[in-house]
Amino acid sequence: MSAGATDAAVAGEGRDAVGVKLVSHFATVEQQKHAAVLGMWAWLLTELLLFAGLFLTALVLRIIHPEAVQAAARHLKFWIGATNTVVLIGSSLTMSGAIQLSRLGWPRGMVRFMLATAALGTLFLLLKGYEYYADYQEHMMPFLSDRPYELKDSPPSRLFVNLYYVATSLHGLHLMTGITILLVMTWQASRPGFLSLHQNRIEIFGLYWHFIDLIWILAFPTLYVLNR
Amino acid sequence: MTSGTITDGPALRDPHTPDSRIGHGADYLHAEHTLRSWFFTTDHKRIALLYLASITAFFVIGAVTAGLVRLALVVPDGQVFTNDTYNKLFTIHGVVMVWFFLIPSIPATFGNFLIPLMIGARDLAFPKLNLASWYVFMTGALFTLASVVLGGVDTGWTFYTPLSTAFSNTWVVPALIGVTIVGFSSILTGLNFVVTIHTMRAPGMTWFRLPIFVWTHYATSLIFLLATPVITVALVLLIAERAFHIGVFDPAYGGDPVLFQHLFWFYSHPAVYIMVLPGMGVISEIVPAFAQKKLFGYKFVAYAAIGLASVTFFVWGHHMFVNGQSDFASVAFSVLSFAVAVPSAVKVYNWTATIHKGSLKLDTPMLYAMGYIGLFVLGGLTGLYLATLAINQHVHATYFVVAHFHYIMVGGTVLAFLGGLHFWWPKITGRMYIEAWGRISAFLIFIGFNVTFFPQFILGYLGMPRRYHVYPPEFQFLNILSSAGSTILAVGYIFPMVYLVYSIWFGKRAPANPWDARGFEWTVASPPPAHNFVTEPVAPKVPYDYPIQAKETGRQHS
């Protein structure tokens, strides 16, 4: 640091004030933060129910038609799914780092961790895209009229494969939304003064990001792993 | 823009603006005047009025198509409309009434307007989200409406597969997209209510001092949050199947059509309680106010709301008794469906016990409330018939079912909606309507409703199936009776639209509390100020602290 730095600047080197701006219809900042956290949890509850219908159907299908589902599940690229699980858990870790640094008022480090999170999220999508391409190569896309479906004698397997596409693409859509929000927020947060006004936005977004991770952690065993 | 004192002088005043703003400071209606201040407002009270205007418009569309359906059924040979037109008409009626009127009606209007006022908050927790949910609602609703008007949909409001995916040659996909979008508006409203009720209550407003209206909206919001995503995913799958052949429901693609019914009714049965529970909340406010008596068994009424919201998630299978589900599943769903009667009856008994020995005032809201109780009891009891396996086999998909769900959904929601509208009209607009007209409308609607729908119970029991417009001639008399009743009902609906609108300009000024009612919303001016409370309200020790506490006190309301 430069020789002319004052004591105050040394103490808070690279740090911002941390806080939340009170919106007029709340009485206290605590009330406002409580409402924001509860609101995000309520939203995540609906997200869980959104996926629960799909996962439940896939599980029931596994119970009713175990052989057909296993035959289809064997075509899923287990190693890509497993790698993607690790990638997403890693992104949750970097997001936690970003949240921790936001609490400490360290915007530069926080921004870097957020960019790392977005990068891991993008890596997930790229791997997923490659997996879809491999599925296409293996004739495992029954909805394409010009590609005969590999397991055409097994209708239940087709239902399972269709559920796989709906569930994973819905998850991918959530991830894309997450990455977009993350990048916009990173851009906002890179300007000075963000943390002193909107620290809780990082916390709230963190909940959403961890939840996308959690959905994948439910999807992976349901689709790829069970009675493989 | 916060003008509103007499110093403005008459020259600056819009001649259509009611006088009440003079010398009153700025109430929420007159705080600002621009169009922008309405369409970009974050005031929950103004958003409630945006919803009120839009759902009234949707109600008119739904009612006109209902009238056309009843017109077609006057003759048994189906000569009034072609098959195709008739199918499209009852689909528009069902889609518009269920998705765009009944489900948002009470929560989006009175819930938005009253919940912050009732719990002593300045606004809902997320005012911008609240405005966004109105825009989401309008986007989805207009999208669907455009598709059913321009191209038409003939699947009925239930969009059953395989008709909707494989056979119907109509604008199913755009209609589904609209309904899916509207679902997000429900989720956002429910989320806002849950968070508001949890975090924004005024000091002293504990859970067991909350008005029952707030309790029922809390229960409704939980259904919004837990059930709506399931219909969203069901409709997304339907769209995926129809548009991209990602088959989940069509056996030709490896799918299962009964799966759609499971996913659909997992939402749509709880949706009945999205429609009925807020109505119960309205009735629980009106009855104590017009009996001037504490609500009997307050805690049980509150628990019953949560009980209904819970049980209703476990009864969806009673829509599938004849669709080849296992006998065990049918018996289980039958038993669970009977269980719904318990919390429903708790509420009815509590209202009756509240009326018992109260000092009753039979004003318009109370007439609507009593009509509601009567219709809800009849609808509820016929629900027990339908939950019974053997009887269900006989009356499944007949007019008996049509009559039953109209008694519950229209009797339960529309009468409560109109009762609530008359009850809170002075608060919302600051004006009184003409009482005599209100009473006439309540009588007309009650009579018209029963003449319309009671014959349908008999028709269904005799075997007339729903959704057919050609029927044996011996059913004609009852069908004519029903259609005649619907005209009385229509007149009953037109009445309030006239005298309530009239009252906005020419009605008597309303005092803060015209009914001697209890609750925070009656402690503020009519209409309320823009930020609800000038001073922070203090909650009473007991909810519904009406003059008659117990018959022993002998205290009578004047």
Instruction: Please work out how many helical segments of chain A DSSP would assign.
Output: 7
- What is the number of domains of chain B? 1
The helix-strand sequence of chain B is: HHHHHHHHHHHHHHEHHE
Distance between the termini of chain A: 58 Å
Largest interface, per-chain counts?
A: A-B, 33 and 43 residues
Q: Taking strands numbered 1, 2, ... along the chain, how are they ordered across the largest sheet of chain B?
A: 1-2
Mean pLDDT of chain B: 90
- Can you identify the CATH superfamily of chain B? Cytochrome c oxidase-like, subunit I domain
Helix count of chain B?
Answer: 16
Radius of gyration from the alpha-carbon trace of chain B, in angstroms: 24 Å
**Spatial gap, N to C terminus of chain B:** 43 Å
| Low-confidence residue ranges of chain A | 1-11
CATH architecture of chain B: Up-down Bundle
Report the structural category of chain A. Answer: mainly alpha
Q: What percentage of residues of chain B falls in helices of 4 or more residues?
A: 55-70%
Q: Give the beta-strand count of chain A.
A: 0
Mean pLDDT of chain A: 89
Quaternary organisation of the protein chains:
heterodimer
How is the main sheet of chain A built? none
Describe the structure.
The complex is a heterodimer of chains A (228) and B (558). Chain A has 228 residues and is mainly alpha-helical. Chain A has helices spanning 7-11, 29-64, 66-73, 78-104, 107-137, 155-189, 194-225. Chain B is built from 16 helices and two strands. Helices cover 64% and strands 1% of the residues of chain B. Chain B has a two-stranded antiparallel ribbon. Chain B is globular. Chain B is mainly α and 558 residues long. The chains are: A mainly alpha (228), B mainly alpha (558). The A-B interface holds A 24-26, 31, 34-35, 38-39, 42-43, 45-47, 49-54, 57, 142-143, 145, 155-159, 162-163, 165-166, 170 and B 121-123, 125-127, 129, 187, 190-192, 194-196, 198-200, 225-230, 232-234, 236-237, 240, 244-248, 251, 253-256, 259, 263, 266, 531.
